[in-house]
Write a structure and sequence with these properties.
alpha/beta; Rossmann fold; four-stranded parallel beta sheet; two-stranded antiparallel sheet; 10 helices; 6 strands; globular
Length: 234
C-alpha cells in the first residue's frame, strides 16, 4: 500500500499530537471525549493509502522545508506528498542562553532572547513578498525528486502571500491545491475561505463559540479532504 505524506503546521497536524493548544482539550470535552479525523486521515482513507502526518504546530516554513528534506528518502513510487506552507510571520531565532532554536511569530515574541525592535524588524523582513517568494525556489527540487522516484507532490498554503498571490496562470497549476483570489484582509488564510464557502466550519463555529479556536472542526476537515480528493483524482 502506498503512503500519503503530509507536512505543515497545526492546520495539518492531528488533534491528538499537538502540544500547544489547550483549547483542544475543551474541544475534546465538548465533543464528549473524542476528536474528529483530520483532513489527512480522511483523505488517506479515500485514497486507500497509509498516512504519515508530519504536521507540527507553529512550524515556520523553514522548519517545514527541513522536515521534507529530512524525510524525502522515505518517499516511494506511487506515494503522494502534500506540503502546507504556513504563515509568513513565523520565524526561528537562536536562544543563545540555552543554545537552542525558538519559534517566533506575531503572537509569540520571546522578549528575553530578542529585542523588541529586532523582533519587529524581523516580522517586516519575513513577511515581505520577496522573502515569501523564496518558497518557490524549493519546490523545483522536490518536484525533480518526485519525477525521478515517481511520487506526486502538491502544495497548499494558509498564508495569503504564498500561492494565493500568484498570477492566475501560475497558481492554477495542478500542483497547487485550493488556490483562491488574493485577499489581504483575511485572518484565516485564503485556503480556508474556499473551505468555508464549500460548507466547512471552524471549531468556534461548530461549538457555537463555546470553544474559541480558529482551527477547522469536523465538518471543515471533511470538506478539505473532499476538495483535495477531487483535485487529486479528477
Amino acid at each position: 500500500m502506498n503512503t500519503l505524506h503530509t507536512f505543515g503546521c497545526s492546520h495539518t497536524e492531528s488533534y491528538e499530537t499537538t502540544t500547544i493548544s489547550l483549547l483542544y482539550q475543551s474541544y475534546y470535552d465538548w465533543r464528549g471525549g473524542n476528536f474528529p479525523k483530520v483532513w489527512s486521515t480522511i483523505l488517506g482513507e479515500k485514497l486507500n493509502m497509509n498516512v504519515v502526518n508530519h504536521g507540527w504546530a507553529s512550524s515556520t516554513n523553514q522548519e517545514i522545508t527541513n522536515s521534507v528534506n529530512k524525510r524525502a528518502h522515505t518517499f516511494k513510487k506511487g506515494d503522494i506528498v502534500i506540503i502546507q506552507w504556513s504563515y509568513a510571520h513565523r520565524f526561528t531565532w537562536i536562544d543563545q542562553h540555552n543554545n537552542e532554536w525558538q519559534k517566533m511569530g506575531v503572537n509569540n515574541p520571546i522578549k528575553k532572547i530578542i529585542h523588541e525592535q529586532t523582533f519587529m524588524d524581523m516580522i517586516d523582513f519575513v513577511t515581505h513578498q520577496l522573502y515569501c517568494d523564496l518558497i518557490y525556489k524549493f519546490e523545483p527540487m522536490i518536484e525533480h525528486l518526485a519525477n525521478v522516484v515517481g511520487f506526486d507532490v502538491y502544495y497548499w498554503s494558509t498564508e495569503g502571500k504564498i500561492i494565493h498571490s500568484l498570477p492566475d496562470k501560475v497558481k492554477n497549476q495542478r500542483k497547487y491545491l485550493i488556490p483562491s483570489d488574493f485577499e489581504r484582509d483575511t485572518i484565516h488564510g485564503n485556503a480556508f475561505n474556499q473551505i468555508i464557502k464549500n460548507g466547512g466550519e471552524f471549531i468556534f463555529n461548530e461549538t457555537n463559540f463555546e470553544v474559541n479556536d480558529m482551527h477547522l472542526g469536523e465538518k471543515g476537515h471533511k470538506v478539505q479532504a473532499d476538495m483535495f480528493y477531487n483535485h487529486i483524482r479528477f
